[in-house]
Amino acid sequence: MTELSRTHLDQLENQSIFIFREAYHAFKNIAMPWSMGKDSNVLIWLARKSFFGRVPLPVLHIDTTYEFPEMLEFREWATKYHNLNLIVKINTEARARGIGYETHDPVTVTHELKTVALQQVLAEYKWDALITGIRRDEDPTRAKERYFSPRNAQFEWDYKDQPPEFWGQFVTTTAKGEHVRVQPLLDWTEVDIWRYIQRENIPIPKMYFSRDGKRFRSLGCSSITHPIESTASTIDEIIAELEATKTTERAGRAQDQYERNAMQKLRAKGFL
Amino acid sequence: MIGKANVQRLTSNAQRPTSDIEPKLNVVFVGHVDHGKSTLIGRILHNTGSLPEGKIEEIKKACAAEGTEFEFAFLLDALLEEQKQNVTIDTTEISFRTARRRYAIIDAPGHKEFLKNMITGASRADAAILVIGADEGVREQSRRHAYLLSMLGIKQVVVVVNKMDLVDYSEKRFREIEQEYRKFLKELGLDARTFIPASAKDGENLARASMKMKWYCAANVLEALDLLEPQKGDIDLPLRFCVQDVYRFDGRRIIAGRIETGTLRVGDELIFSPANKSSIVATIERWNGPANGPAVAGDSIGITLSEQIFVERGYVASHQNETPIETNRFHADLFWIVREPLRVGHFYDLRLATQQVKCQIVSIEQVMDSSTLEIKSNPPSVAAATSGVAGGREQLERNEVGRLTIQTRGPLVIDNHDRIPNMGRFVIINNGQICGGGTIFGGVYTDRTVAKSKNIFWIEGKITARERALRTGHRGAVVWLTGLSGAGKSTIAQSLERDLFNHGMDTYVLDGDNIRHGLNSNLGFSPDDRVENIRRVSEVAKLMADAGTVVITAFISPYRMDRRRAREIALEGNAEFIEVFVDAPLEVCEARDPKNLYKKARAGEIREFTGIDAPYEAPDDPEIVVHTDKQTVDESVATILEQLLPRLRDYGADD
Hints:
The structure holds two protein chains of two kinds.
Chain A: H1 8-26, E1 30-33, H2 38-50, E2 59-62, H3 69-81, E3 86-89, H4 92-96, H5 106-125, E4 129-131, E5 148-151, E6 179-182, H6 190-200, E7 214-215, E8 228-229, H7 235-244, H8 254-257, H9 262-268
Parallel strand pairs in A: 1-2, 1-4, 2-3, 4-6
Antiparallel strand pairs in A: 5-6, 7-8
Helix pairs in contact in A: 1-2, 6-7
Chain B: H1 4-13, E1 25-31, H2 37-47, H3 55-66, H4 72-79, H5 82-85, E2 92-97, E3 102-107, H6 115-122, E4 127-133, H7 140-152, E5 156-162, H8 171-187, E6 191-197, H9 221-226, E7 240-249, E8 252-261, E9 263-264, E10 269-273, E11 277-285, E12 295-296, E13 300-305, E14 316-319, E15 325-336, E16 342-343, E17 347-352, E18 355-368, H10 382-387, E19 395-396, E20 401-414, E21 425-430, E22 433-441, H11 448-456, H12 465-472, E23 477-482, H13 489-502, E24 507-511, H14 512-516, H15 527-546, E25 550-554, H16 560-572, E26 576-583, H17 586-592, H18 597-602, E27 624-627, H19 633-649
Parallel strand pairs in B: 1-3, 1-4, 4-5, 5-6, 23-25, 23-26, 24-25, 26-27
Antiparallel strand pairs in B: 2-3, 7-8, 7-14, 8-13, 9-12, 10-11, 10-14, 11-13, 15-20, 15-22, 16-19, 17-18, 17-21, 18-20, 21-22
Helix pairs in contact in B: 2-4, 13-19, 15-16
């Protein structure tokens, strides 16, 4: 290694920063959803890399009211730590109608409390772009994503007719009601994320690490997110575990398994 | 070609890579429909142990149940759940791993309609595998894809001549195809590393030498993959640092961008094109990273300069002896990928790195068939005949490649594609959509250090600003009034000018009328023209301020960006810049309506009128604010003078 050579992580970081800056320039009204999950925290970190320590755009937490208490604690702490302009959105209307995991299926609840909540807050703030932390390797439907991926006014993703994207040139215009999903982590893998968290020492919730023989590999609503059997209590151990596993990252997320193609359906309707 | 023995030693000695130390290699698989891409990919996944356990058995069972023969192509489909989800037309990505490293396969669809997806996928690739069916030989898409790969800048190509089982593993057939295709690739400037005769279906020459083709003794498919190298950031090419944005955080001004090629170090003297201004790199900025370490091709960084020159998005920094070309007319080869044809004479947006300009297609000299590389005959159209352009076509259809001349409205910083690929390629945008991509050739480099820059660089006159100030008793400055129409800018400007004049000062008002009727008489009111209007005003104001005059400008100047630019232009000429916010509520301004403009705007007779259907961005931190709804003209002028005069007189007279 010399000061002129670059690692795989350096290359991913540079590309993500490039995308962040393009998006920040192209869209006047832009926000960044933040789930407090590991990818989301890497996203915050890359924003600070892009803007020399600052996060100059609002950060949005869609609060389903089924959040783990530890995650909310982390939210409070990290908001101060990163000096975030945090917006918290709850679909109070759906909760008032009695939508909840106690009475409804997970696909319906996720749609109402996440996607619809996002639609509501988007209508309120009129953002024309959202920076999201999705990765190609997470799920087959995400493999087809673009770095700048337009969504129509109904929030639909037209994955069969996506714009071309090459030479670092992206779709940066939106029609009324449309917005663009900007996805700087598209090329990262789950292991890349962990190695980067380790290299940069990025704060993440403790729930990712093993306690009493269990840890969370992916974090969502408390009612439908289950820990996996694991003794991995350091990042090195987590990486070693991931390299040996053949189960998928989102296996602990009930809404994905609820029916065949659940992710495809949720995503076509605007889920992240 | 590298002998087989070497290859095997290379792989067998290699350690299994720890997953993320070495970057994965992106490989795009292209080829004519039904030449066996999916089968080849399925086979590679199988032979590298990349499939989930039980997957093959599962699919074999499913095939048996439906009475079809098992095919490796099904694996790919099953893996992606493509069959049940019907999402077969886009580029997809699957990974596998050999003894040497990780790979991501980019599967590009063969169908002609999906060219834009093929381009999207292939543009991310380090290398390409071109698949040709031995039975059908070189076909339309085999050639078209190779052509596009060459335009996209892919240099490493491996050709797999598949389905050798259908031609009895004939060496003669293989050599025919190799000879024909190698010649074609050479014309494109693509150097195929290896041609491999294979049968993906039977696994011949996939992971080990084929017993059925003993006449072939070079690398098999997996070995050929392991011999490819990641496409390198072009660190050895001349420096091109493309500015994405200029950030002002904590009072510091950081120029953010990406190094496209070359290397940049603290202390380097940079030339910024197109302005041709130079400055020295004071710091290289990275957050939580190696500050001030050298930056190389691919790095996203920030820099600060030792001298504050005006820089904005789109500027390109280079070293002094290796400057790019600055032009507004150039030649290019362009591929077109949308239904609506490209038309001569139409205006499009052109983007090259971070630059964006309006452009017009001057002429289409040639249209090439991208699969044969033959020049299509160009029957002269009526328009071409009457305009005297001989033989030129008037439009370029989808999937065609044209050789054209393009003219841009403003100066564009370019390189020839064969010299610096990243700066020699651009996209054409129409209605916000990317419609085509082009590569530039034939541009002429001039030695700008001699030809231009020395003469244009700001030369300090022999008479210093201080000398001028000593004689007049005040320094030159730009007093920039901004506010809504009807807020009172012109009235205040004239009154202020009179007062300053009475104080014995050299002063002058630049307003819309005296500028629009002369200097800017060729500008309209489009957003672009408004920006240019303000830019020219800023430059004139700077010159006059440098001559010692207190220049007062009275323009709505609704955009922060434009005023910020005016400030930087002034600072560049060492002129004081004082922003005065002439503030009055919209209702008040509309009630005054001295020129009946609000009425017209409300009636829809004027469009994009500030405050009605165009925004006004109030200053965040102006030097002076006056409230004309509460203050009289005299009071407003007094407020300004109170803060202005000390600044004008502070020129170091006592030093």
